[in-house]
Predict the structure.
Amino acid sequence: MPNLKDLKNRIASVKSTRKITKAMQMVAAAKLRRAQEAAEASRPYTERFNAVMAGLAASVGGSDSAPKLLSGTGEDKVHLLVVMTAERGLCGGFNSNIAKKAKAHARDLLAQGKEVKILTVGKKGRDALRRDLGDHLVGHVDLSEVKKIGYGDAQKIAQDVLNRFDAGEFDVATIFYAKFVNVVMQTPTAQQIIPAKFDAEDGEDSGASTLFDYEPSEEAVLADLLPRGVATAIFSALLENGASEQGARMSAMDNATRN
């Protein structure tokens, strides 16, 4: 049975831990405001960009001259999964939920006889996937020294993916991240980026084929825009991840402080 001194030490330890979790909650709250603003500010541009791309894709998607990033390789054998998580933990189920979705997708593909390759962005995703799918890891992007995510960071990741595609290393690429909804809800999301895939509503009212004449051709414009589309999708995902991570950390530290 613990004596009075042990109980006092235990109480002091709990109070000290509570101060730490409270401080982490406050830091996460401050970072969340900036991250949420960045994620929400990027959404209108991304949505409009996708609308224009969808309209162009609908016009040229069936032609023999359609860019390869739109038409694909004609195969569906090798899949690249780009799994984006945080560099740090202590953010509830944020990292594990993204990794779980990626694992389920990978296992489903493997069960169909497909080949799976995984590129991780963020230390926590690499650690989680290495245990079960280590043989499928083909690369890792370390963002631990990046204090504020910029478009240039997304471009570097996109260029890596595009280089692998041009080298014939995969047929389909899908990114995994968490879409920010609110502080207590972040939705693990899978989004195919190669070949480019658009929802039917993306092209509605875009006017891409009816309001504009393109010079050079629509195919040439698409060929220039599609690589930017890959970078834009990755940048948007990184921003959503940033807000989701801070929201999850704020919620987790709040629960830790209360309990």
